[in-house]
Structures are given as C-alpha cells and as structure tokens.
Amino acid sequence: MISSPAVRSAAATVFAAIAGAGPAIAASAETAAPAAVVVHRYALEPLGSASYYQVTLNDAVYAASRRSDLSDLRILDGAGEPVPFTFDNAVAAARPATLRPVRWFPLPATGGQGAEDGGSGNDNNSGTLSLTIGPDGSLHAAPRSAAVPARGGDIIDLGADGAPLSALLIHLQDKSWQGRVDVAVSADLRAWTPVIQAPLLKTGSGDATLAQERVELDGLRARYVRLRWPDGAPTLAGIDAESTPMDATPPTRAWRGGIATQAGANAGEYRFDTGGAYPVDRVQFDLPQPNTVARGQLYSRADAQAPWRRVAEGQLLRLQAAMPNGATANAGSAAAGQGEQRNPPWAVPVDADRYWRLSVDTRGGGLGSGLPTVSLGWRPTIVTFVARGTGPFVLAVGNPNWRASAVTLADLMATDAGAPAQARIGRELAPMPPAVVARQEDPGAGRRYVLWGALVIAVAMLAGMAWRLSRTKPRP
Question: Integer distance in angstroms from the first to the last C-alpha of the chain?
C-alpha cells in the first residue's frame, strides 16, 4: 500500500494533468479533422523568370469554385505556400456608352460588290447618288443622273476615330418587317471580314409596337461596316452607333452552351443550373419550336433557400424566314434548317448565381411543347500574381472555408514593374491532399500540435516519476 505523501502528491498531479489534457487532446482531434472538401488544382504554364504573371480563368475554374466572388481561389508556389494575387478584371468598372447617329450609303443589288468595286448607291431618301472616296478615306455622295439597280446593301462610314462599337441600332421605317442582316467590316473597302448575322424585327398591333433593332458587336473596331440583307432590304429610318470608351473595352466574351432546362412547378416556368460560379452577363435561349414569339422574365438566386431576384425580361423569338417564291422546304431538307431568326442574347448585370428560372407568358401558348436550352456568356476574369518562391506554381480552387485573400492591383504591382508576362491554365492535377487543405485553412494548427505534444510528454514524465516513487521503499 502506497502511503508516502510524496507518492500521493505525484499521483494526484498525474491524474490532474491527464484530466486537463484529455479535453485538449479531444479538441485537437476535432480541429485537425479536415472537412470533406475537394480542392481542385491546375498547373500554370509556361512560366519563365518574370516577376509578375497574368492568367485568364477558364470555365473549369468557375465550375470548381464554390464562391460567387472566387474567394475560394489561391495561387500556390512549389512548396504549397500562397502567393499574393489580384483579380484584375473581376468586375469591370461601369462606363457609360455613347450613342451617335451615323450616315449610311446604299449599295446596288447588282454590279459586283458595290462600293468596294467602285459601285454606286442611292441616298437615304429618294433620288440617285454616286459614292466617292475623299483623301481622308471618308465617303461622299453626289447626284447621278443614271438610274441604279435596286438596293442590295448599305455601307456605314464610322470615321477615323476607331472607337470600339458595342452595338448598332438599326431603326426600321417599315411598319412591319422581319429578316436578317449580315454585318461585315473593312478598313479599306476592299477586303471585308464577316462579323455576325443578326435578326431584325418590327411589328405592331393597334398602338403597340414590338421591335428588335439592336445588333451586338462586342467592342468591334472598324472604319467601314457593310450591311447585307438576305431577306430583302428594308426601308431604314436611321442607324445609331453605340460606342464604348477605349479604356473600358472588356476582354472577349466566353460562352458555355447546351445547358438543359427542367420544367418548373408552374406553366411556362423553366429552371436551370449553371453548374458553377460563372460571372454571367449574357443569356441566350434556344427555343424548342420554330415560329415562336413570347415574352419572358429571368430570375436568379444563389441557393435553394434564397429568394428569387428578377434580372432581365424581354422577347423570346424563333421565326422561320420566308422561302423564295416557288420554293418549298421539307423538314429534313437543308433549306428547312436555314433562315431562322432568333432573338439576340439577353444582357443581364454580372450575376454569378447558380440557380436560374425563366418565366414565360403563356397567354399566347408560351413556348409550346419541349424544353428550351440555354447558353451563357461572360467576361473571363484575369488573375495577376507575383511569382514568389520556387515553382511549379498551381492554381487551387474549391475550398469554401478559405477567406478572401486577393489584394488590390495597386498593392500588388510596383510602379515600374512593367507589363506582366502571360501564363495559361494547363492540365488538372491531383486534388489537394486533406492534410494540406487543413494547413491552408488553419496556419496555427502546427503550433498547437507542438504544444499538445509537449503536454503529453510532460504527463508521461510525471507518470514515470510516480511509478519510480511507488517502487521506492519508505525508510523506517
């Protein structure tokens, strides 16, 4: 029987230490257990010896992100340490566009390619004009006595300022017109580059008028714009050019198409999931049936518990173009698949919500049978980072427990740093190991492990002391 006061004191100390260490050890085990998250990693290549690099995010990064603001993104060096970075164009500053009327010059339907062959055309009203090119490249119209053929196109002279065009607004004078316009651009009236084919529509019922007169050009720069009319030339009331400030021209828009929709609980309701944190600013709908015209409203929300927010509304359009006289088209013929006119993509404020709902007015039959498909457009985010440490550098994304760590561009870039070198997102690597995820989430975890280890060693030493004291025979 151990009766020595020293032994009893040592035993009490051991029991107290064990009792105090138990909750700490349990807490450490609970803290150290990483959440079941998958952090995707992508190689950044090619990297040389530059100090700064820029990389444009692709759709795989948006699909892997769990945060609408990309706050779960990191740039890591070869040792797994985060390096400073910034989102260069995450949200482009809003800059007002300018609208200005432009003059157009009609082209004949025959006799070559019009102005590029020295052809002539009429003026905006009745009468006959001949086009000449001035020393500065501007177009001039002069009366011409000879008759000219029917109008087959139009040329717009935008001037030499080179301001990027966000859109053309082609105002139709006809009370009712439906057709397509082929847009091409040129710098010298000789070589023409096709840009887009867009639908135009104007119709009315009573005092109400429905018109689609906007042609999106996405920051196009050109001196001359040519309009061709595959379905016959309409009478034009005017053309306005919408220009974007040159320093506000955004990067090229990326697209992701073929997104399926599901029927909602109510008639005319269609829901879809974007599948990622895409900063959507354009939405295009592919309607299931031709000859469909309906109005719709578009809503979005971040998750299933959030309320719906209305982000856009507009016309949904899919019309089959009229066939030439005497022509017929079977369902399986090539002509049946050509000449359809569809509404341009809807413009929405930049929206990274994942869940969307389209509500269609069903009073005119809605969209008919079948389900629409969706295409999403967005301006890709550019990440600029400092190549601190040693490579290889990787982009990691997908941990919702990470806090936002991007810095401002002014804090990242030195005043005389120069332009960053370009990098790209390469192959996808193995997911980040759970232990590394935990270390990235809690950098102080290692220090706590050392302290807890020291505590356990101290308890073991006290237990050893107590055991030795218990083996010592008390003196008489």
Answer: 15
Contact 79, 390 (CB under 8 A): yes
Is there a single domain that holds both residue 176 and residue 87? no
Residue 232: left if φ>0, alpha if ψ -120 to 50, beta else—which one?
A: left
Using alpha carbons, list the distances in angstroms from residue 474 to 251, 285, 297, 335. 87, 92, 91, 110
What is the SS3 assignment for 354? coil
**Element holding 27 (H helix, E strand):** helix 5-32
Type of residue numbered 438: A
For residue 96, give both structure tokens.
């007002």
Copy the structure tokens of residue 176. 């009712």
pLDDT of residue 307: 95
Q: What is the pTM of this model?
A: 0.59
236 contacts 104 by C-beta, under 8 angstroms: yes
Residue 106 CA from chain centroid, whole number: 38
CA-based nearest residue to 260, from 281, 286, 289? 286
The CA distance from 90 to 250, in Å, is 11
Residues of the chain with pLDDT below 70 are 1-36, 89-96, 110-150, 162, 244-251, 321-339, 436-452, 471-476
Helix (H) or strand (E) holding 457, with range, is helix 445-471
Q: What residue numbers bound the domain in which 304 lies?
A: 254-321+339-378
Q: What are 309's two structure tokens?
A: 């927010």
Q: Are residues 374 and 386 in the same domain?
A: no
Q: How many domains does the chain have?
A: 3
CA distance 438 to 310: 39
CATH number of domain containing 175: 2.60.120.260
Distance CA 418, CA 401 (A): 34
**CA–CA distance, 29 with 58 (Å, rounded to integer):** 38
In b/e form, how buried is each residue of 349-384, taking b as 16+ CB within 10 angstroms? Answer: eebbbbbbbbbbeeeeebbeeeebbbebbbbbbbbb
Per-residue H/E/C for 55-70: EECCHHHHHHCCCCCC
For the record, the structure tokens of 265 come out as 């609980």
Nearest partner of 126 among 148, 102, 110, judged by Cα: 148
Whether residue 286 sits in one domain with residue 219:
no
What is residue 263's predicted lDDT score, i.e. its pLDDT? Answer: 94
Residue 197: the pLDDT is: 83
Residue 116 belongs to a domain: no
Instruction: Measure the CA–CA gap between 188 and 162, rounded to whole angstroms.
Output: 13
Domain presence at residue 136 = no
Residues 163 and 264 in one domain: no
Retrieve residue 278's tokens: 């895409």
